[in-house]
Design brief:
Elements: H1 2-11, H2 22-38, H3 42-47, H4 51-67, H5 72-80, E1 89-98, E2 101-109, E3 117-126, E4 129-135
Antiparallel strand pairs: 1-2, 2-3, 3-4
Helix pairs in contact: 4-5
Length: 136
């Protein structure tokens, strides 16, 4: 029995599992965010953004969205530009948190682009959840 308890403690699982740090939670949000985009799930992608970030997408699509009768962030991305993220590969390089703000440094490999791109993803903590406010 003692060997099993020791193995669980070393593996950091079961009753010995640590709660994720805020840095890990922020990085998980970024992985979920880009994973949703890679799968073409723009409803989840937009849900993981701050209200201001969603509104920025809606404003930037402006007249084109109106002409094509697109309603909201997820429809806009699905029809106008989100396809660039399909099948994207992501690697989190680092995650830093300061209060209710986080910065997650990533490497993205877009399917039709040579090499990898460095992206900083800025997040905002709201009601205990991390939301993407900008991805540069």
């Amino acid at each position: 029995m003692g060997v099993i308890v020791a193995a669980l403690a070393i593996a950091d699982v079961g009753p010995f599992e640590d709660e994720p740090t805020e840095e890990e939670r922020a990085a998980d949000t970024v992985e979920h965010f880009f994973g949703a985009a890679a799968d073409g799930d723009f409803q989840t992608f937009c849900h993981l953004m701050t209200k201001e970030a969603r509104e920025a997408i809606e404003v930037s699509a402006g007249e084109v969205a109106i002409e094509q009768n697109l309603d909201g962030c997820s429809e806009i991305l699905d029809k106008l530009g989100g396809k660039q993220f399909k099948e994207t590969e992501l690697r989190v390089v680092s995650s830093n948190v300061s209060g209710d703000q986080a910065r997650v440094e990533t490497e993205l490999k877009l399917p039709d682009e040579p090499g990898k791109q460095q992206r900083s993803v800025l997040l905002q903590l709201s009601n205990g959840e991390w939301y993407v406010q900008d991805f540069q």
